Amino acid sequence: MGQKVSRTDFEWVYTEEPHASRRKIILEKYPQIKKLFGCDPKFKWVAGSMVLLQIFALFIVKDFSWPLLVLAAYCFGGILNHSLMLAVHEISHNLAFGHSRPMHNRILGFICNLPIGLPMSISFRKYHLEHHRYQGDEAVDTDIPTLLEAKLFDTTFGKFVWVCLQPFFYIFRPLIINPKPPTTLEIVNTVIQLTFNALVVYFFGWKALAYLVIGSILAMGLHPVAGHFISEHYMFAKGFETYSYYGPLNWITFNVGYHNEHHDFPAVPGSRLPEVKRIAPEFYETMPQHTSWSRVLYDFITDPAVGPYARIKRHQRGLKT
Known about the structure:
The chain is mainly alpha-helical. The protein is built from 14 helices and four strands.
């Protein structure tokens, strides 16, 4: 089973999340960052092209053998679908069309969701915005593993299994930690997605749909692009709860690696986050950062000091501590 993790509890703190206060300090010193706020006019064309590319791929993969199909899903389709998930992330902040056109953003979210195979764009937004506002909150932030996850997957092998199963924890964890009734838009999202899936099966066959769904699941688990799930908020250096990554995988993930910058300024689209770092380097270059998402996965699995417990948590206000 491998070495057992050294932590037996989460890192509980009694301070506010750090991003709101740092945002205020940075804007006082560099008010020009406000000019970076707003939507990226090129984003919708990039995201739309990715959707079309994945649909065109169905013409090719529909006749693949199962081993070749799984390989294609891991090496190509999954990467494209993961990028589309991060496009949905951008859209959740209304960075495609701006806050003045919310339904335009939601519709583009439905479109980017199509190749992913599972309806998630509306549900993701509902929980993700709370992750920003209540980072680390024990009862609200569904990005944090449950106590059961931390207890069950507390060895080297256990962490390996946990990483492989990450997509399922991301799907079901919100239903346990912070369940919410489905909204009208979530129902619409589901109907659109199921209709698209049925059309894929009708025109391309079950293998084509399997290619989409398998790719989405594989690229959320033991996959280099999925390293950002762990790199963003798992505590690799004591006291630091958000980490940035400035490597080349940002090119295909809408700069989600600029994660401190993103949490400090969620109104800045991913394409402009490097400019935030350029303007205010002293706030970011001195903080711990990751240089490789693959290395993050390796260290997470093999280092006994890191595991599902390695998250900073805060007691919800009003709850017994």
